Amino acid sequence: MSNVAESSAAGSPPRERPQITEADGVADAVAGLPRSRREVEPWLDAFIGGNRFTIAVFFPLVGALMLVGSAEGWAVIPEPLRFNPPFLVFGTVVMAAPMLVGVLPTLGRRGVAGLGLLTAYTYLIEYVGVTTGWPYGGFEYGIDLGPMIGGIPAALPVFFIPLVLNAYLLCLLLLGDRAASRLARLAVVIPAVVTMDLVLDPAAVSLGFWAYDAGGVFYDVPLSNFAGWVVSAVVAVGVLDVALDQSGLFDRLDACDFMLDDMVSFVILWGAINAWFGNWLPVVVATVFGVGVLRAKRFDVGLLRPSTGVYLPRVVDREP
Prior knowledge:
Helix content is 62%, strand content 5%.
């Protein structure tokens, strides 16, 4: 297992990075926790790389069962666990972890500022949408997606921004050399973000996450919602494209195998939920994204190999 973790730790030249091995139990893992940024980045790479199946496959499968069971009132899902807000947020963060850990080392001040601006936009556009019905169409939340502030999930950026980043990273890989063109990036990533909502929204409506006042022609989702997503996709992708370091992202994508694992989780989670409710067109769209991950060569049989437990890394060589 330690070979998997060490091969996943990517970024700086090997001589500048501390050695990471598998810890011999919890106490050893605690003793080997990182104590500096030099140690944090490779430790996180090793942790994510050593737990890829648990994060990218196990979590979305369990999440799909829990969400469907909550919506259908299955007796095997205890009432306190049905649509449990902290669990919803925790599961989302865990599944987004591979992408977040992959992107974080590439962020400079401009990247952090861009994410801050996008976070503010996410709250603003959702508040406008909930209070006025523009640009998505009139809707209201049916359950609490974590703590709610003014009728808006406090964790909303955790749900939205990873979705946009996943589409961005996948398109960078699929575009290849053409990704050097900003026009090409925008022309491909913006439609990709909107297309991801063709998978997300029907499943969310079927679960009762939210409902549109007038229903809709696409599995009870109105066309106005997708028009609103065009607006948000243009803003979000535009901000990210200016804020992110494309050169750093390309280098990180080349060196980091797990950066698109959150897209694998997206396909499994929302594809399975749509399949349960008979939303077959969204299932097809989810499958297309899965094919995209395969074409980007970011899905390997290792993701389907069940883990024997949680992989715990430890830092071996400390800084003097």
